[in-house]
Structures are given as C-alpha cells and as structure tokens.
Fold this protein.
Amino acid sequence: MNKKLLQINTTGNFNATGRIAEDIGVIAQRNGYESYIALGRSKRQSANELITIGNKVDIFSHVALTRLFDAHGLGSKQATLEFVKKLSKLNPTIVHLHNLHGYYLNYRFLFQYLNNTDIPCVWTFHDCWPITGHCAHFMSVECDKWERGCHDCELKNEYPKSLLIDASTRNYELKRKYFGGKDKLLIVAVSYWLKDILQRSFLKDKEIEVIHNGIDLDIFTPIDLKTRAKLRSDNQIPNDKFVILGVASQWNEHKGFLDFIELSKYLPANCQIVMVGLTKEQISRLPNSILGVPRISDIHVLRSFYCMADLFLNLSYQESLPTVNIEALACGIPVIAYDAGGTRETLPCDSSLIVKIGDLGAVVKAIVFMMQRDKNESSREGRLFVEENFDKGKQYLKYIEVYNRLISYA
C-alpha cells in the first residue's frame, strides 16, 4: 500500500510553519510516503507536491468577512469545497494539519469531511487560535476566557482583526463542536508550555504530545571572523560595535517593537541595534541608533545577520516556541529574551538570559553582563544545546513515528 501524507498550512516552504511542513514532507518521502502540501498562498519551489486552495479573490473576500463579521476561518467556502473534492479523490493515508487560519480555508467544511472519515489526523499547534474565539495569542492581556468560553474579546482589533462585530462566543462554540468532533486526532504541541495550555482547553481529552520544532543546522551555523567582518562592512556596521539583533516576521507592540525603541535610549554608546523584518513605515519611525532592515525571505541572508551580531534580543510578549532564538544559538549567538510562553524551552541556562516581560532595566543589565562574557564559551554552549534538542532531522522523524503508529491503529 502506498502511504500518502497530506499536510495543510497557510503557506508552503515559506516562513516558519511553511518550512516546517516542507521539511516534514521531505523526511516523510525518505520513509516511504507520497507527500502533498495543501496551502493558501506563498508557494515556493518544493520537493513536495503542492495543492493550492483558492486564489487571491478568495483571500480578499475572506479578509473582508473577518473585518466586518469576525468570521475568520468561516470564509473561503467554495474554495474549501473544491479542495475537499480533491482531498476525497486523493484519499490520503494520514492528514497533518498546521495553521488553518490565514484567510484561505473554511474549517467548518474541512472538518465536516474529516469528522466523517476514518483518516487519522495529526494537528500541530503553532499558536492558540484553534482553542479561542478570536485570537492566536492571549498572553499579552492575561486572558483565561478560553478555558470556559470566549466572550467580550479584548483582542478583537488584533489579528485576525475584526473592525465591527465581536463574534468570539459563536466562534468558540463552533471550534469546540468541529475540532472536538474528530475521533482519530492526535495533537502535537510545539512546546510543553503550549501542551499545558491545551490540557486546560476544550481539547483536553485528546491525545497531546510535544515535538519541538527543528532547524537546518547546515544553514544556521557560525562563520569565521573574516567573513563576519565583511558582512558588517557590507551593511555599514563598524567592527567595533556590539551588535544587538532582533528578528520578527511581523513587528508590532506584542513583538516588542516599542520596547526596542525605548531600550535604545539607555544602551552604552558602543551598542548598535539591528531590527530585521520591518515595514517601510516602521523603519521611518526608528531613531538613528537603530538600523532597520525589511523582511528577509532568503534564510541564507537571514543567517548572515545572525552571524554578524554579538547578541540576539527577543522582546516578544507572547511566544509558543520562538524559532528565532534557536536559529541565533545555532549561529553561535547568545540570547536574552522575555520570559514568554515556551521561550525557556529554547534557551540553555548557561549561555543565555531570561528576564521578566517588560522589564527594560533588567534587559539593560543583562546586555551589559553579556558584553563582559567570554563570547566563544557561550557560542559553543548554545550551538551544542541546539544540536542536541532542535536538529530538524531528529525532530521531524518523530512525526513519521507518530504517523506509523496512527496508521497501525487504523
């Protein structure tokens, strides 16, 4: 029997979750699976067979439905019905879900199909959207409504933004009905922190495992001093500066955008902050002490920014498992981060520091401390920690073991 794996995600081979799906698919092929990825947008060259759900018009109409009626995940009806027909014809041995949000899929139609089949499903939770009535992360407002039933959402104007209606109660009940209705469903949390959250949600009776995300250790690796000096020269960064790097795919207040700006006022003169992933408007708001860089889609270029830095700084207020921390450590860069979500699981105790969320005074002290440390020692410790815990080859092979186990039960 040919084993067929179908993964579903917002993107394919692009950004963190898209690359994870791509890598899992490649490893699945090495282990006897045909591999397919269904996606909404951002299709890149792939070693897997790609299936596109809908088109730009579907996405724009889904955005409008979300903005007006807080109906995220309930648009894209025709696009999803057409995809379900393809799914039925493909008849995969196993379905692996990733992010179902992102304006491309109608989860009600998808689960109406899945809940009436015997196809085993794995669902990797990269955030909390599936268990809330609206938001993907609730830590910034310390909300616990999702434990009992969402209502009066404080994050209605955050992604996925609704400008008019608060339908969090309806959304919560629909998700509980459809997501809870799939019998053969194993949930994977990307951190132990997230597993604890899920065990307090309406999905607490499902089987929940933890598989940390992995990275490509052949790409994210340290460089020699000569190459590092050239990279700095190419980006007009003096070699005598202590470079503090921040990276995000989308900067906002919850990612620490304003904290970086405020922090820049209190750092020693020989420090240079570099922020990667900014919009043109955000770059225009930066003080002269911060170098702003637009979003980087080429991971080799991204790696070069990690390697030219002396310290990676993550001031995010909400994280499931910050892959950027892992990438920085793999490149030999120590990390200072807010104690958010699953952050502690990404950092070795000896070569990185964790500070209380929002405590910029503690951040300044931590940076000064790191400036005085032996960089080579912390570089080796961080790299070894990542090799032991976040090698994508080892991590994603765990999914194949899960697939095989579920198939044997079917």
Observations:
- The longest helix spans residues 392-409.
